[in-house]
Amino acid sequence: MAIAVSGRKMPIGGLVAGLGGVVSILGAFLPAQTASANGLSISASFFDGNAGKTICVAAIVALVLVGAWLTGQKLPLNKVAVSVVIILAGAVVLLVVAANYGDITDGVNLVNKYSPGAASVGMGLYLTLVGGILLAVGGVLGLVQKDS
Q1: 7: in domain
Q2: How far is CA 85 from CA 10, 77, 78, 89, 101, in A?
Q3: Domain count of the chain?
Q4: Do the domain assignments include residue 41?
């Protein structure tokens, strides 16, 4: 399966994985949790720890491979290896989100229980989760799609 973009056929798996890489990086910068009380508001993104760096490195590795895949560049890796690395990048993003999910939701619940303010899970967590899923799905599509 491919989509014609400017008269050139682009594999759907590459496009999905590319979108996943961009969404993962964007999500890493956005707040993963927010809290506000007494007129003050704070937020925390994955970059408040090392998680943001890990997410971005995994997504950038995937984006470099996706860029080469979509432009037809010759790589020292075959299509299967490129797809597997993209799947692994998606898995790294998802593992980082999963590892931080408990701390984020515990913090939100703690603030909501003991504070007169309100806390919530931020858009960054959800976007990063979606980005990791898109990376993994794009890599899987790369494995199962026939070359056209």
Answers
A1: no
A2: 19, 10, 11, 6, 24
A3: 1
A4: no
